[in-house]
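Chapter summary example.
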Amino acid sequence: QVQLVESGGRVMQAGGSLRLSCEASGSILSMNVMAWYRQPPGNQRELVASMNSDGVTNYADSVKGRFTISTDNAKNTVYLQMNSLKPEDTAVYYCNADIATPDSHSMDYWGKGTLVTVSS
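The structure predicted for these 120 residues follows.
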């Protein structure tokens, strides 16, 4: 059974930096596409950043130049470095990954989320 566990969410001041981590555990053959989503209060979940197995990244316009997604394949961990935080970055951040296991070609997995609150 694959699990994704996010960590690093906390209350921050605007302008600060924060790094979120998401560790995958279980019988993992490969992590194909990894992504961070967020859900601001009262709004729908939205894509923040993604990275495929070739290292190609994609970012929401609202975070370009401020956020960076990266991975440590040896640790099955994906990170989201967030700089120049703004109050509008306040949200629950979710890790998402397309993971291949010995029992399946690939499946989509989600973490339970970690809360980031940015105060002005």
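To summarize the output: The mean pLDDT is 96.
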